[in-house]
Structure formats: structure tokens, C-alpha cells
């Protein structure tokens, strides 16, 4: 039968709704299954039947008890899903099917199929009666719906009255009546009466601890009966919601937290919970009393400054200058030269002995290959004094113009500097200057004198 297949679809739809939306944290759902009866006679409407007979009644005549006017399907023909919203209000979505054998008091020769879907907002009067856990549960509601009568549809306004008779906490026998007033005057009004069983999901145990949510102070966490359903995860006799350290067994004096090192500071406030310390150090020890706690002290048993991570400053080269102040910590020097060795007159003389053997191509600033040995020796000496600064000075003889000699001496001095820097000497330690023929050290009138005047000097720059 076509109406039965439609109703089967309707039942699956409604049960699907319950499954889909039943995942609310409190699950305040109920399912109704029962039968229904339809009666158009006492609605006060004229009814035109196929044989032309007109039947009418005053509204309310034989309202409930003239069952001879009812259309009943003696099987499961009505289902509903109810969702409790709060403050006594619920919303019900329901559906029914029926066979219309009579309209008013006129029996038809051929059944008409009836299917309807309704949405109703209900109010539960049990709250007003202060009777929340009693078996008598009256309710009323209003809403709207739609019915199909032999494939002709109509929207309706619904007024609803009913009673739940609770047999247990979850099962009730339910009866109700609905007045369905069609939106269009040309469509039929009906009374629909229902009776059936309602299954409620009230009294649920969300956390599965055997204590119903309404009696459970912690309904979302499995707990113990002695704590009204609240957990004590660490089994220290203090329930988790009052326990500052719910996962670690502790003491009541520390709000459930432990004092693992026994220093009188609970572990949550103790920065060193496994080593006894003092309150001023937030529970951490300072074994050498240098003001730096042991876990931040590289030398916890030897006092030292914080700037050196709690260790005494070393003097690696033993020159009396601490490494922190020693610019040459691995090489003995003098206090006056910040821990570095000083350039002596002998070293200065040795530098210039090598420097004066540096030769250039005639009239040019390019260094000859034969000068590399002297430059390597100069590099070795400069490496021994890593903080000393030197000036590279270029000089020429008097042959040629003073201007060209000055420029040549500058480029030659710069060429030596460039060589030294390219071989690892910090350029900020070196400067270069050209003096041309301005500072002769021998007579330019002789060949030997001019040879001595063509020279490069490397001199210590003193601060």
C-alpha cells in the first residue's frame, strides 16, 4: 500500500533525526511510538462527500467519546521524537499515517490515505506542580504541520493537550489530542488522538560511572560514589576538583600537591622539586652560597660570579690577567697590554729588517716574487701580537718628481698592506702611508744612499 511505504520512510526519517541529533551533551530526548485516530466531525466544518451528502456539527459536539466517527489504524501508525529544550519546554517532531473511511458521520466506499508531519512546542506542567519526579505529567503545546489527504495537501495550525503516565523513570504511557485547523478555509479541520508508549533518555550517565547525571556533581568525568561522582585520579583522598595536583598524590596541607624533597615547599611552587632548597631560592639549593642556584651554576661547589656561570674566573696563561680581561688568554702578556705580549724594540727591529728586503718591480707597486719569504716572516711576527696595530710606511729616493714619488710610495705601502690582509691579518690592525722622498735615511746623491731610501717600514702604533 502506498501510504504504508510513505509511513515507513517517515519512520526511518524521524528515527534518523533522533540518531543524528542525540549527540547533545545531556541527551534530553524521548521517542513516542503508538497509534492514532482521526475525526473531522466535531470540528464544526461542513463536509462534502462523494455522494453529495453534507454533514456538519457544532464545534465540540461529541468531541472525544463518539468513537464511531473515528478513523483508526490498529497498528503502529504514529511516531515522534521529543527534545527537551529547558525551563519546562520541549519540541516534538512527529508523523502519522491513517486510512480515512468516514468524514463526519458518512462512511466512504473507498479508503483515503492520510499522512501528516507536525512540529509542536510543548510546555510541561509538572514544573508548575512542583512534581518533577512524579508519574503524572500533563503538557500542552502549539505548532504547525502538514497533512496529505489522498495526495491533496494542507498546512495546519496545531493545538495539543496530553498526559504522560510514567511507569518507570524511562517508560511512560502517553495519550494526547491535537486539534488541526487548516490554513485554508476550503480544507478540512481534524481532531487527531494518539495513544502509545514513550521512551525517555532522562537519567543518563554520560561518564559511565554508575551515577546518574542528575545526582553526579561531575557528570562528564567518571568518579566515585563517595565523592558524588567526582574523580580522585591520584587516590590521595582529595577529589580532583579540589585538588591542585589531581594527577599526583599529595597532602591536604598543600591542596593535594606533593613536597617530594621535603623542604616545606610544594612541588608546584618548587623550581627544584627533587632537591631540598630554600624559600628565597624558590626551593632550589645554592651549595656554594655564591648567589647562583646549583642548577644554573656550572661550578655548584665552588663560589664564583654569575657573569662566569658561578665559576671562578681562570687565568689560563698565568700572566696575572684573568681570562675575562685578557685579550690574549692563551699567551702570557702584561697587564699594561691587556694580557697580550708587548712588541719589544728587538721585535720592531726584526720587522723592519724583513720589511726593507721587500722589493717591487721597477717604477711599480707590484711586489716581486723574491719578496715572499720576507713577507711570510712578517706574517709570523704579526700573528704573535694579535692585538698590536702597525703602520706600513712607504719611502722613495729623490729620483723623479716629488709628486710621482709620493704617489708611488703610497701605492707600494698599500700593496704590502693588501698582501698582509689577504693572508689573514685583520685590516683594522694595519694602516698604510706614503712619504715619497720626504724622510730619507741616507744620501740621495749616492747610489747606495738612494737604495737605502727606497724602502718599506712596519712600525708599531702606540695608543
Q: Which key terms come to mind for this protein?
A:
463 residues; alpha+beta; 60s Ribosomal Protein L30, Chain: A; 8-stranded antiparallel barrel; 3-stranded mixed β-sheet; 5 helices
Fold topology:
Elements: H1 2-21, E1 29-39, E2 47-48, E3 54-55, E4 71-72, E5 78-86, E6 89-103, E7 106-124, E8 136-149, E9 152-166, E10 171-182, E11 190-200, H2 345-355, H3 372-384, E12 389-395, H4 402-422, E13 430-434, H5 447-453, E14 455-461
Parallel strand pairs: 12-13
Antiparallel strand pairs: 1-4, 1-5, 1-11, 2-3, 5-6, 6-7, 7-8, 8-9, 9-10, 10-11, 12-14
Helix pairs in contact: 2-3
Could you characterize the architecture of this molecule?
The chain is of the alpha+beta class. Among the domains are: 2-200, Porin (Beta Barrel), CATH 2.40.160.20; 345-461, 2-Layer Sandwich (60s Ribosomal Protein L30, Chain: A). Helices cover 16% and strands 28% of the residues. The strands form three sheets. The protein has an eight-stranded antiparallel β-barrel with strand order 1-5-6-7-8-9-10-11. A hairpin with a 2-residue loop joins strand 8 and strand 9 (152-166). Helix 2 runs antiparallel to helix 3.
* Helix count from the secondary structure assignment: 5
Helix content range of the residues, please?
10-25%
The fold-level CATH name of one domain is Porin
Q: Largest sheet at a glance?
A: 8 strands, antiparallel, barrel
Please give the alpha-carbon distance between the first and last residues: 114 Å
The low-confidence parts are 1-27
Shape: elongated
* Percentage beta strand: 25-35%
What's the level 1 CATH class of one domain?
Mainly Beta
Radius of gyration: 53 Å
- What would you say the CATH architecture of one domain is? Beta Barrel
Cross-sheet strand order for the largest sheet: 1-5-6-7-8-9-10-11
Strand-pairing-aware structural class: alpha+beta
The SSE string, one letter per element, is HEEEEEEEEEEEHHEHEHE
Give the tally of β-strands: 14
Mean pLDDT: 83
Amino acid at each position: 500500500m502506498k501510504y504504508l511505504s510513505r509511513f515507513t520512510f517517515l519512520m526511518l526519517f524521524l528515527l534518523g533525526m533522533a540518531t543524528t541529533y542525540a549527540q547533545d551533551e545531556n541527551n534530553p530526548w524521548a521517542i513516542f511510538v503508538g497509534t492514532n485516530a482521526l475525526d473531522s466531525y466535531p470540528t464544526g466544518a461542513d463536509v462534502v462527500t462523494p455522494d453529495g451528502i453534507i454533514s456538519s456539527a457544532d464545534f465540540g459536539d461529541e468531541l472525544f467519546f463518539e468513537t464511531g466517527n473515528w478513523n483508526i489504524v490498529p497498528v503502529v501508525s504514529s511516531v515522534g521524537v521529543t527534545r527537551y529544550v529547558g525551563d519546562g519546554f520541549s519540541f516534538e517532531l512527529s508523523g502519522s499515517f491513517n486510512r480515512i473511511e468516514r468524514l463526519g458521520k458518512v462512511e466512504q466506499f473507498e479508503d483515503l490515505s492520510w499522512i501528516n508531519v507536525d512540529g509542536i512546542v510543548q510546555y510541561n506542567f509538572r514544573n508548575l506542580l512542583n512534581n518533577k519526579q512524579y508519574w503524572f505529567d500533563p503538557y500542552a503545546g502549539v505548532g504547525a504541520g502538514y497533512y496529505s489527504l489522498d495526495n491533496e495537501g494542507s498546512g495546519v495550525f496545531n493545538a495539543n493537550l496530553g498526559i504522560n503516565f510514567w511507569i518507570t523513570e524511562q517508560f511512560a504511557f502517553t495519550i494526547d489530542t491535537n486539534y488541526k485547523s487548516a490554513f485554508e478555509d476550503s480544507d478540512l479541520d481534524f481532531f487527531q488522538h494518539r495513544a502509545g508508549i514513550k521512551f525517555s533518555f532522562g537519567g543518563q550517565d554520560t561518564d559511565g560511572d554508575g551515577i546518574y547525571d542528575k545526582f553526579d556533581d561531575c557528570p562528564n568525568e567518571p568518579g566515585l560514589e563517595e565523592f558524588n561522582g567526582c574523580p580522585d585520579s591520584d587516590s590521595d583522598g582529595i577529589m580532583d576538583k579540589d585538588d591542585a595536583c589531581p594527577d599526583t598524590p599529595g597532602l591536604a596541607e598543600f591542596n593535594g600537591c606533593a613536597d617530594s624533597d621535603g623542604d616545606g615547599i610544594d612541588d608546584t611552587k618548587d623550581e627544584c622539586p627533587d632537591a631540598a632548597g630554600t624559600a628565597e631560592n624558590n626551593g632550589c639549593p645554592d651549595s656554594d652560597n655564591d648567589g647562583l642556584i646549583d642548577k644554573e651554576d656550572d661550578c655548584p661547589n665552588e663560589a664564583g660570579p654569575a657573569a662566569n656561570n658561578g665559576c671562578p674566573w681562570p687565568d689560563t696563561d698565568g700572566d696575572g690577567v684573568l681570562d675575562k680581561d685578557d685579550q690574549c688568554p692563551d699567551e702570557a702578556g702584561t697587564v699594561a697590554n691587556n694580557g697580550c705580549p708587548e712588541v719589544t724594540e728587538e721585535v720592531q727591529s726584526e720587522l723592519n729588517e724583513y720589511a726593507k728586503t721587500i722589493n717591487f718591480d721597477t717604477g711599480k707597486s707590484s711586489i716581486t716574487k723574491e719578496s715572499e719569504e720576507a713577507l711570510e716572516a712578517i706574517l709570523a711576527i704579526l700573528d704573535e701580537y694579535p692585538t698590536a696595530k702597525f703602520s706600513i710606511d712607504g719611502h722613495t729616493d729623490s729620483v723623479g718628481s716629488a709628486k710621482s714619488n709620493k704617489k708611488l710610495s703610497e701605492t707600494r705601502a698599500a700593496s704590502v698592506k693588501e698582501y698582509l690582509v689577504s693572508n689573514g691579518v685583520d685590516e683594522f690592525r694595519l694602516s698604510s702611508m706614503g712619504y715619497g722622498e720626504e724622510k730619507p735615511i741616507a744620501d740621495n746623491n749616492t747610489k747606495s744612499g738612494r737604495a737605502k731610501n727606497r724602502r718599506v717600514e712596519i712600525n708599531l702604533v702606540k695608543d
